[in-house]
Specification:
The protein is α+β, with helices and mostly antiparallel strands. It folds into 2 domains: 204 residues, Alpha-Beta Plaits (2-Layer Sandwich); 258 residues, no CATH class. Helix content is 22%, strand content 25%. It contains 11 helices and 23 strands. Strands 13, 19, 20, 21, 22 and 23 form a 6-stranded mixed sheet that branches. A 5-stranded antiparallel sheet has the order 15-16-14-18-17, with helices on one face. Helix 1 packs across helix 5. The longest helix has 14 residues. It is elongated and about 85 Å long.
Length: 474
């Protein structure tokens, strides 16, 4: 292992992302690389330092990161970013004569001062010596007030990563160096241009696996979550409209000539697929005292049978500009009714409903937020026929058969609409069953979500959420 240590001398990190409105912490490996390259150029470093930088950019995989907990500095009176009025640099006439414009300096306060960037590869002694020399020249990462001390970590020191590279379309993405980055930075430095990195890498939290036996569902528990940042308020009654619009946006973003069966839900001949395919569902505000069920965002669940590279290739264009790697805004609308703008959820502390764990955390008890649509109508003269149909629905959805079921018109979650107030699910044909109800399911073993059950599970109906122990008692 080769690791670089970064000590934030003021226990604060000041750096902004590409929008210049939000902080960028932990520091992206690409930002660390740019700081080291700038120190090399400014001090006219030797050839050994250049080879050390080239060693970094030629690593086949992105580095692991170990960072502390942190808190964002915001105004005490609001949740908006603090702004400072400063003289602009592009006008002359002295400090007094220059106009002042609002600038934000996104700042986070750290729980402790050290951050580590780690590669699995072992560097040679020559590269290590050059890295140590180069690290001693770095004084800041990010804003000029973000003072740091860097060093080469002793190989014997054990460091546990908090973020690890991820090939999936992850919740967190960071800029990283690639072959040729040093040459492009050198050209930008000579011209006085602003440096720019175009390679992005996904990261996920490096969690230890649970020791409890958990049954995995058919979907990857790492959801693609979108926050709604513009548009009118809509409730869960608009579930089918929203999920259909998001599905259409995903299909339109596909490379020309591609329409994978796992995304479209249809075979090449146009018939519905019998294989697992992508599910689209809303993320509502429920399970709180003032919850009213309005939709805060949307999510996409990808089947586990889909290769990660395949998912990135076909869903990446919906999320990111393929040329620059920058994030895209997803535009959804229904003519004359509503117009929404979504972006990938990447905030450090998003609302509870927009957190992946809220919908995927393992639990033995799950309850529906949107009603489950049965596959066929129950017989009036057959006892426990509803429970039998529901059990078959869980099994056909790739989940174990519940040991106990509780059904009714109302959801156990505050804010979720009852089954009668939700529009009937008519997708798939007018002659199919439209009987729908809320369900609470208890399993013998813990199940990891997302849990989607019933005939409308790929369009947001039959969406379940795990119950906490207090809710189970109630």
């Amino acid at each position: 292992m080769t690791a670089l240590g970064i000590r934030y001398l003021t226990c604060c990190a000041v750096s902004s992302d590409l929008t210049r409105q939000r902080h960028e912490f932990p520091p992206h490996p690409g930002r660390v690389f740019m700081a080291m390259a700038a120190a090399h150029f400014e001090t006219q470093g030797d050839e050994a330092e250049r080879k050390a930088l080239e060693w970094i950019e030629q690593r086949g995989t992105a580095p692991h990161i170990s960072s502390p907990e942190y808190w964002e500095r915001r105004s005490s009176l609001s949740r908006v970013q603090l702004e400072t009025f400063v003289p602009v640099n592009d006008k002359h006439g002295g400090v007094v004569g220059r106009s002042r414009q609002a600038r934000s300096f996104p700042t986070v306060r750290l729980d402790h001062e050290n951050v580590f960037v780690m590669w699995d590869d072992e560097a040679s002694d020559d590269v290590r010596n050059a890295l140590q020399k180069l690290c001693s020249k770095v004084t800041r990462i990010g804003h000029s007030s973000s003072l740091v001390q860097m060093w080469l970590v002793d190989p014997a020191q054990e460091i546990r990563p908090t973020l690890t590279p991820d090939r999936f379309v992850s919740e967190r993405r960071m800029r990283v160096a690639e072959p040729g980055t040093l040459a492009s930075l050198e050209t930008a430095f000579a011209k006085g241009d602003r440096p720019r990195l175009t390679r992005w890498e996904g990261y996920r939290e490096a969690r230890e696996d649970s020791r409890l036996p958990v049954i995995e569902g058919p979907f990857n528990p790492r959801l693609l979550v979108f926050e709604k940042f513009d548009g009118r308020i809509l409730g869960l009654e608009s579930t089918v409209q929203l999920t259909s619009a998001l599905r259409n946006a995903a299909l339109k973003s596909l490379p020309q000539g591609k329409s994978p069966e796992w995304l479209s839900g249809h075979q090449p001949d146009g018939n519905p697929t019998s294989k697992p395919h992508v599910a689209f569902f809303p993320l509502p505000f429920v399970d709180a005292y003032y919850a009213d069920g309005h939709v805060l965002g949307m999510a996409i669940a990808v089947p586990k049978t889909v290769a990660l590279d395949d998912a990135r290739e076909n869903l990446g264009a919906l999320l990111f500009n393929p040329e620059t790697g920058e994030e895209r805004t997803v535009h959804l609308w229904r003519n004359g009714a509503w117009d929404w703008k979504l972006r990938r959820e990447s905030r450090d502390r998003p609302p509870l409903s927009l957190r992946t764990d809220t919908w995927t955390e393992e639990s033995c008890v799950w309850a529906s937020v949107t009603p489950v649509v049965l596959h066929h109508y129950p017989k009036k003269n057959r006892d426990a026929d509803v429970e039998r149909i529901l059990t078959e629905a869980f099994v056909s959805a790739g989940l174990p058969a519940p040991k106990r079921l509780r059904v009714g018109a109302a959801s156990i979650f505050e804010g979720a609409p009852d089954a009668l107030s939700m529009p009937q699910f008519t997708e798939g044909g007018a002659n199919l069953c439209r009987y729908q109800m809320h369900v609470t399911a208890v399993f013998d073993q813990c199940v990891r979500g997302p849990v989607l059950v019933g005939r409308g599970r790929f369009r947001g109906y039959g969406l379940f959420r795990p119950l906490r122990p207090k809710q189970e008692r109630e």
